[in-house]
Amino acid sequence: MKPNRILLPFSFVYGLGVAIRNAFFEKRVLNRESAGIPVFSVGNMTTGGTGKTPIVELIARELSDVRRVRTAIVSRGYMRSSTGLVIVSNGTSICTTAERAGDEPYQLATALPGVIVIVDEVRARGARTAKKEFEAGCIVLDDGFQHRALDRTLDIVLIDSEVDLFSMPMLPAGHRREPLAALARADAFIITKCTPGADITGITEALRRLNAHAPVMTSSYEVDSLVDVHTGVVHEISQFRDARAVGVCGIGRPESFKQTIASLGIVLDEFHAFGDHHRYTENEFRMIGESAKRTQAAVVLTTEKDARRMAGAFTPSVPLLYVKMRARINESAMFNTVIDSALSASVG
């Protein structure tokens, strides 16, 4: 997206406000609450799809399944129909709907059956609930870099390798949420969407100039499987290689999903892109179904996030599958050291 130059003066005002707010938190004019247990914040500097949800899932899985710590994810629950504190999963079962939870928290609750998931715009209250009512031993704070009212043990900031963060204006002219100087408070960076052999020297050098102490890691995303939206049946990718398909998504960067489908060797006849967190109508479902019939598609493919909005509402004449993505940290030894050090540290 090109910057909107007309809005640049408003970006200056917005940036000044954010800088003042950050200074108030640094000087403790604005209070920061301690959860009393390790808090792992995963956030970013931009709006839109940096690939955050798979990283949150990976970290929660590492803490819960590998290190055997009772883990809770606390999220704002962006674009949910509810307000206040909502228990999405109690660590045993899902307790609400995708609409009340928000797309990403519901997706995480489904993917991580042993992890507590709570949504609350007051993240500190959500963390208190996780510890007091569910005896959580650690918190993963989803999209937490700008939410400074809750202290964190580890601030992980995701940097999208496909976006030039360092020349991007701030909101509302661009997508950047904070002044670049805010990167100095990060404890670790993960550069996302790094294809094999990608040159990230420029990004790494720019990060080093702003923050010399935080380790810089990279991540890639791999397609794990294709999953039936209605039945949960898992299909091997090879089953649909060379098959004709219709793609549909309502995410921040639909082009990335389109490229993912192409990388599977699936023939994409038509592709329908909607806005992020789009709520589909019956007419839109009808249109997608007609698209599949017209092109004689063997399958309709969507994202895992979209699947939660389609389940029970859209049944085309061909299988409706979502593409299950898996995040991988390429510097696994460094990643384990960062996680283990934070897990053993006391919260400040």
Question: Describe it for me?
Answer:
This protein has 348 residues and is an alpha/beta fold. Helices cover 32% and strands 24% of the residues. It contains 10 helices and 13 strands. Strands 1, 2, 3, 4, 5, 6, 7, 8, 9, 10, 11, 12 and 13 form a 13-stranded mixed β-sheet that branches. Helix 4 (103-111) packs across helix 9.
Q: Radius of gyration over alpha carbons? A: 20 Å
Distance between the termini: 39 Å
Strand content: 15-25%
Shape: globular
**How many strands in all?**
13
Q: What's the main sheet like?
A: 13 strands, mixed
Helix content: 25-40%
Q: Low-confidence spans: pLDDT under 50, at least 5 residues? A: none
The number of helices is 10
What is the average per-residue confidence, as pLDDT, rounded to a whole number?
94
The secondary-structure class comes to: alpha/beta
Order of helices and strands: HEHEEHHEHEEEHEEEHEHEHEH
Summarize the structure.
By secondary structure, the chain is α/β, with parallel strands linked by helices. The chain has helices at residues 8-26, 52-66, 98-101, 103-111, 123-134, 201-210, 254-263, 282-294, 304-310, 332-344, and strands spanning 39-44, 71-75, 86-90, 116-119, 138-142, 154-160, 188-192, 216-228, 234-235, 244-250, 267-274, 299-303, 320-329. Helix 4 (103-111) packs across helix 9 (304-310).
Q: Helix and strand layout, with pairings?
A:
Elements: H1 8-26, E1 39-44, H2 52-66, E2 71-75, E3 86-90, H3 98-101, H4 103-111, E4 116-119, H5 123-134, E5 138-142, E6 154-160, E7 188-192, H6 201-210, E8 216-228, E9 234-235, E10 244-250, H7 254-263, E11 267-274, H8 282-294, E12 299-303, H9 304-310, E13 320-329, H10 332-344
Parallel strand pairs: 1-5, 1-6, 2-4, 2-5, 6-7, 7-8, 10-11, 10-12, 12-13
Antiparallel strand pairs: 3-4, 8-9, 8-13
Helix pairs in contact: 4-9
